[in-house]
Amino acid sequence: MQKKSKVKFIINLVLLCAAVPAAVISGFFFFGSRQYYILSAVIIAASILPFFISFERKKSPSKEIAVLASITAVAVIGRAAFYSLPQIKPVAAVVIVAAVCFGYETGFLTGALSMFLSDIFFGFGIWTPFQMLGLGLTGLICGLIFRRSALKYNRFVLGITGGIVTFIVYGFIADSSSVLFLIPDFSWAAVLSVYSAGILYNAIFAAATAVLLILFGKTFIEKLRRIKNKYGIFKLAGEYNEKY
Residue 5 CA to chain centroid, in angstroms? Predict the structure, then answer.
């Protein structure tokens, strides 16, 4: 990472990590029955702000916004289309591909927006802000892992890595909503029982993500990279155009 880019990333991550717990605590104590909607709005605002700040010195933010909106729409539609299959959804795979192609910031924002918007169909609740944070961080971490790495074009490395990150990061954070809000009296036995109950569901979601990345990830990445090179968007410092 360039020095300025690294400093910006650290600042954004610290602000995000401070904003989310503050929003959860404030909503729990002050906002009553509508806390989930307010929490979602606060967290999505905290997610959007760093991304739009990064547009300040870029030449074509409108093109980047259009591409981001399109990818987010694909993720939302993909999650809604598989409504009858609770854990077999392509949303995480789409977010990971976006992060790999366009960077960790885009990956985080795509993940957070996808979960917020798709919960319009699935229903808002205590799980919404945690899903936003979980899938956002999944995209962010995958974007960092494959930053400038040619391993992104190895379908098996991409799929296995994406599945593991989805299982650990998204699964843990999404299940944390149940731990924080559904356990009346804290005990380690209760906490472990909640996380244990979610292992199977998280494993199915992660496996579906891995399989989709293995089957379609490389093709999707190549198409998005062509768009990136053609329009000169989401460029990293010193990055060159790739040809296929």
Answer: 20
